Amino acid sequence: MKRLIMILLSLTMVFSLVACRDKQETAEQAVNNALTAVQKLDIITMAKYIDLDKIKDQQLPGDFDIDISDIDKEDIEKVKLLVKNFDFEIIESNEKENSAIVKVKITNLDMREIFKEYFMYALGLVFTESDENIIEEKLEAKFVELLDTTDLKLASQEVDIALNKIEGNWKLDLNQTALDAILGGLMDIANKFDY
To answer: pLDDT tens for residues 51-103?
Structure first.
């Protein structure tokens, strides 16, 4: 009887291990989960798939040094405006054993259009206001106002997102182009002002 129970337990373990292996996440699923987390501003899930420190340290230009622990509710509401129109469509994926490329069509606000109006407002403000704190407050309010309007133009771009399997889990390696598409062209704009 003991032998029969041991055989059954062994078989159960073998089948459960096979089932676990079969349920391994594909690169396409990882991209879908990561970009869905961006839509929902789910930082915990984003951190599972994306090395946020690498993006902050290596890819954000100039003064874009943000400590996630310093973000408060008001900041989160502002960031939600950046992703309120964010959408994506996975076009194709090419997965190898430990690496993959997933082609994605990303749609978000066209930040270039927003910054045209923002820049004109900022230029006028600099010539009419001398207090730097007031200028900063007004510029932030204008930026939020522009993001919160309903008739914003959207931009779409197809990008290749590279993934690497690390310790059995897929990690997205977002390059400058993919990050710029996710942010609606904000990286491109920031790089033009980063001297």
So the answer is: 877 666 544 444 444 454 555 677 778 888 888 899 999 999 999 989 999 99
The answer to whether residue 100 is domain-embedded is yes
pLDDT at 151: 83
Residues 6+ apart with CB under 8 A from 174: 50, 55, 59, 161, 182
Report which residue type is found at 140.
Answer: E
Q: What is the C-alpha separation between 86 and 115, in angstroms, rounded?
A: 18
What is the total count of domains within the chain? 1
Quote the pLDDT of residue 91.
Answer: 97
From residue 106, alpha-carbon distances to 42, 113, 165 in Å are 18, 17, 23
Domain span at residue 82 reads 26-110+153-193
Give the residue from 109, 114, 110, 102 showing the smallest Cα distance to 85.
109
> Considering the domain boundaries, does residue 183 fall inside one?
yes
Q: Which residues of 168-187 are buried (b: 16+ CB within 10 A; e: fewer)?
A: eebbbebeeebbbbbbbbbb
CATH of the domain at 60: 3.10.450
Q: Tokens standing for 54?
A: 């690498």
List, in order, residues 6 or more apart from 61 with CB less than 8 Å away.
187, 190, 191, 194
Whether 137 is covered by a domain: the verdict is no
